[in-house]
């Protein structure tokens, strides 16, 4: 255990989050996503796991240490439901609430068409597979910056 670090964050996940740079993309995937095969195409090249967590629990833990790149519209994305791109299922509403809590205000995720999501995921820095079993529990987070002391 480490003081001040969310215990849901394992060593492999912490390593990847720390290694990522400004603008790098992180994929948070549900249990049904082809995570292993997609992860082989990422910068990290291997799958990370947070199997014992829902998507919202994983995002909440990640955002306790991970700054979002809120200078761009796609700082956070969600896989759209096929044929219903504007529908927000409960799993996505929960992740949106975790993002809003971390940011201190409502910052909506962008929708990403299912097959475009797969293509985008292959270009990511890393893929983290959660234990989320609900459909469309797949998200992207783009890493931001931490400003110098005393600057916001």
From TrEMBL:
One of its GO terms (biological process) is fucose metabolic process. The keyword Transferase does not apply. It catalyses: beta-D-ribopyranose = beta-D-ribofuranose; alpha-L-fucose = beta-L-fucose. Pfam families: RbsD_FucU. It comes from the Bacteria. The keyword Isomerase applies. Signal peptide: none annotated. GO terms for molecular function: D-ribose pyranase activity; fucose binding; L-fucose mutarotase activity. Gene3D superfamilies: RbsD-like domain (3.40.1650.10). Keywords: Isomerase. This is L-fucose mutarotase. It comes from Meinhardsimonia xiamenensis. The lineage of its organism: Bacteria, Pseudomonadati, Pseudomonadota, Alphaproteobacteria, Rhodobacterales.
């Amino acid at each position: 255990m480490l003081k001040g670090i969310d215990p849901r964050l394992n060593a492999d996940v912490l390593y990847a989050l720390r290694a990522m740079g400004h603008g790098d993309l992180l994929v948070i995937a549900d249990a049904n996503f082809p995570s292993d095969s997609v992860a082989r195409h990422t910068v990290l090249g291997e799958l990370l796991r947070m199997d014992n967590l829902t998507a919202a629990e994983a995002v909440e833990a990640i955002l306790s240490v991970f700054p979002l790149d809120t200078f761009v519209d796609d700082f956070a994305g969600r896989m759209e439901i096929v044929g219903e791109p504007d529908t927000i299922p409960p799993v996505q509403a929960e992740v949106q609430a975790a993002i809003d809590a971390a940011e201190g205000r409502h910052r909506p995720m962008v929708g990403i068409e299912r097959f475009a999501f797969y293509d985008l995921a292959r270009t990511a820095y890393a893929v983290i597979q959660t234990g989320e079993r609900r459909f469309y529990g797949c998200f992207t987070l783009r890493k931001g910056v931490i400003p110098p002391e005393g600057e916001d």
